[in-house]
Amino acid sequence: MEVAVFILVVLVFVALSGALVRLVRVPLPVLQIAIGAALAWPVRGIHVEINPELFLLVFIPPLLFGDAYGAPKRELMALRGPILDLAIGLVFFTIVGFGYALHWLVPSIPLVVAFALAAVLSPTDAVAVSSIVDKNVVPARLMHILEGESLLNDASGLVMFRFAVAAALTGSFSFVAASLSFLYAVAVGILIGVAALFVAAKLLQLLNRIGGVPAEAQVLVMVLLPFIAYLGAEHVGASGILAAVTAGLLTGGSGVFRFLGVSARMQTMSLWTTLSFVFNGALFIVLGLQLPDIIRHVPPELMSLHPIIQPIATVIALTLCLIALRFLWIWVGDIAAGIAARLGKRKAEPFGLRVRLAGSVAGVRGAITLAGILSLPLALPDGSPFPARDLVIFLAAGVIICSLVIASLALPTIARGLVEPGEDAGAAEERLARVGAAKAAIARIESIAGAADDEGGEVPGARLAAADNIVAGYRRRIAASDEADEARAEAREAGRLELELRLAGIEAERAAVRDMFRSGEINDHTSQALFTEITLTEALLKGRKARK
């Protein structure tokens, strides 16, 4: 019962945070962390013990799968060089640089434990990045690099974290064994992600052949896909995170959706949108719930000079160290890419100073770091306590919060003006695609309308009339996307008036159905079916209105 109440409380506050963020004007993740801390701060407040493995299983696969599915694959492939450079090279650079810096700043932390903390802090969080970074103020190229990096660096960071913890437990470390294990975790994780997607596609194909299978059964297969990929990889010692990401990246282009019915497709998209919002919010609230307990157990090593200032100053210094290391790596990589482009007689696309700084500040940490650091063992094999465990947990939690706050406050200022005003490249591409699709539809409809009837050998007038009506709608769509500003303005005004009239008609439909239901003319099933159709049509029209 306590677990059920806890889940309901978290869900209630996730919903409330979506409304409160409009009033308090702070980033949603920061607000949700504050809500979680407020719930847990009183002596009798909510307290939850996190099982790191369960935490990773419940939250990470669906969230990373959803982010990977929505990521722009073409852009990620084009930017694979800088993405892999950050996802792998920067991880190792951070482990070495931050590990030595932490050991120097807090000598009570053994060097191998410092490397473990550096490894778990090296991955940026895809969920936190998408929640913090505003795609409208950050250049598209930088945003794509950040998305791709955060999807891939979890595997490299967590694998190295496991090696560091094993070295702390055993007192030995083998570079060759670590390298081979890393390659195994990555390669097998990718393969299992592909295999899980293949199995899901075959299962959906089987359900499609059977026929009459409820759409909910097909949706359930898609919901289970990231969990199957994650658990399968973890079972054989590979990267479950990379398996879930691989399945998400390949789902869109694999054709698996062709085995889903129309209703199942719509339900899947709607469900993933809801799950993403709920899991994102719950994740940050649970993170906030951990803070009071972590703060109450601040290790005495951080309070020798001052009980408040020293812990805060240490966390800020370590966060700035991570940002500085990231900035240095991006700067050097940018210079190297420019030299390589000139040697290859290609056009260089260097980042400016502010773009490099924005990319450095946007590397926020989140759930992966928290779950990883909480998985530290309590004791060494000889029974003695794991060295500096409480200390590194406090520092990891502090860096998570500090990186979120710094990114939330500083990034809008740093990124202001980086995106030049004008039509977004993605919007222009979408406009051209709509025109091409509309022209293809017109050609096909005119071909069908002009075909003679098999029985009479003449073209039916009803078919021509229906075709003219449909083609007129497609021509209005083309006019709305025309390059001529005047023609586009007239078409948009006509479209706006049409949408307003359609929406007014829908509202009248809804009122009429409601009156018929209240008077007993129709039953619950009929009213629900009609309301569903009306709501879907309204959603489509409002989506068109928002795009205009």
What does this structure look like?
The chain has 548 residues and is mainly alpha-helical. Helix content is 78%, strand content 0%. The protein has helices at residues 2-24, 28-40, 52-70, 73-78, 80-105, 111-121, 126-132, 140-170, 175-210, 215-235, 240-254, 262-296, 309-343, 353-361, 367-374, 389-415, 425-450, 461-480, 485-519, 524-547. Helix 6 (111-121) packs antiparallel against helix 8, helix 6 runs parallel beside helix 16 (389-415) and helix 8 (140-170) crosses helix 9 (175-210). The radius of gyration is 27 Å and the shape is globular.
Quick summary of this structure?
The chain has helices at 2-24, 28-40, 52-70, 73-78, 80-105, 111-121, 126-132, 140-170, 175-210, 215-235, 240-254, 262-296, 309-343, 353-361, 367-374, 389-415, 425-450, 461-480, 485-519, 524-547. The mean pLDDT is 80. By secondary structure, the chain is an all-alpha fold.
